[in-house]
């Protein structure tokens, strides 16, 4: 088993009350491909990704984050992680076994320190996918997920200790202290980030496009279509990636991005980025200002699914 049990981010699953509008949003506006549907659950893939699906939408009375799923190298990594988590008192939802979701595989689920359901799996069958062509403004893959937390330092320590995520950079404010922590499980600058917030919730899900031109075309298409834009287009300093944030029909924040930094982990040292400097939020200076309005739009509603595993 490798020292780092997690290899990459697989998919992020949400539950929403306005299910039909969410499904239509992903397939007709966001540029994802519907690859399966069953009893109020729809699976969406990115056409350029080998992952069976990168987002799952479930019909539910209340909005919640159902699941964040990560990949592991092999069964030994999965079994070893499950044994270590159990011995450390982490609550397992189930023991490692065969998965019943598209693509099968072998994995298990558990709760993180704030009660979100996390899945780790291996041997999931690759999906037939294709090259995303020049000027094709649809997501290539899932980039990262950001979680809101009232105790982000505790979250940071938990993901470091139990899943071996490493800190890449931190956003700080001279008067407010730490605001966001970027964490990695591979050489990509971040697959997971934790943002300071009054309550646990989904901050945003980020989708990577082919390149700058495709990212701008996609951002413009969504703005023309009247999808509510929160912030962007711009380019962050931490991670060096582009950003445009939108609200989906259920009030979750979704991001188009590209060009996320790939780092040399042997030489990388985390930096503190002062958010009072405008170039930290947006190197280009093209986005609307990062202010209290933008921050509150990403606070989202308090998560209703803590320490309650989804039914599927």
From TrEMBL:
<dbReference type="InterPro" id="IPR004360">
    <property type="entry name" value="Glyas_Fos-R_dOase_dom"/>
</dbReference>
<dbReference type="InterPro" id="IPR029068">
    <property type="entry name" value="Glyas_Bleomycin-R_OHBP_Dase"/>
</dbReference>
<dbReference type="InterPro" id="IPR037523">
    <property type="entry name" value="VOC_core"/>
</dbReference>
<feature type="domain" description="VOC">
    <location>
        <begin position="141"/>
        <end position="259"/>
    </location>
</feature>
<dbReference type="InterPro" id="IPR050383">
    <property type="entry name" value="GlyoxalaseI/FosfomycinResist"/>
</dbReference>
<feature type="domain" description="VOC">
    <location>
        <begin position="8"/>
        <end position="123"/>
    </location>
</feature>
<dbReference type="Pfam" id="PF00903">
    <property type="entry name" value="Glyoxalase"/>
</dbReference>
<protein>
    <submittedName>
        <fullName>Oxidoreductase</fullName>
    </submittedName>
</protein>
């Amino acid at each position: 088993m490798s020292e780092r049990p997690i290899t990459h981010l697989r998919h992020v699953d949400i539950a929403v009350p306005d299910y039909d509008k969410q499904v239509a949003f992903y397939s007709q506006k966001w540029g994802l491909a519907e690859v399966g549907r069953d009893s109020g659950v729809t699976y969406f893939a990115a056409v350029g990704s080998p992952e069976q699906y990168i987002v799952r939408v479930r019909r539910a009375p209340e909005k919640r984050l159902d699941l964040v799923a990560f990949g592991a190298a092999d069964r030994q990594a999965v079994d070893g992680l499950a044994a270590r988590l159990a011995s450390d008192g982490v609550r397992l939802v189930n023991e490692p076994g065969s998965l019943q979701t598209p693509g099968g595989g072998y994995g298990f689920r558990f709760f993180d320190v704030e009660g979100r359901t996390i899945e780790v799996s291996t041997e999931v069958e690759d999906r037939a996918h294709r090259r995303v062509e020049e000027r094709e403004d649809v997501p290539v893959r899932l980039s990262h997920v950001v979680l809101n937390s009232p105790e982000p330092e505790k979250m940071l320590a938990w993901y470091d200790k139990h899943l071996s995520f490493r800190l890449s950079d931190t956003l700080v404010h001279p008067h407010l202290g730490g605001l966001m922590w970027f964490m990695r499980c591979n050489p990509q600058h971040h697959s997971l980030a934790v943002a300071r917030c009054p309550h646990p919730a989904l901050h945003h899900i980020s989708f990577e496009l082919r390149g700058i031109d495709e990212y701008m075309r996609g951002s413009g298409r969504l703005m023309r279509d009247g999808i509510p834009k929160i912030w962007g287009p711009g380019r962050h300093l931490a991670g060096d990636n582009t950003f445009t944030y939108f609200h989906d029909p259920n009030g979750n924040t979704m991001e188009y991005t590209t060009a996320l930094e790939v780092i040399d982990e042997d030489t990388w040292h985390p930096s503190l980025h002062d958010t009072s400097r405008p170039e930290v939020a947006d190197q280009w200076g093209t986005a609307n200002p990062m202010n209290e309005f933008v921050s509150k739009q990403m606070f989202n509603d308090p998560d209703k699914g803590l320490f309650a595993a989804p039914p599927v």
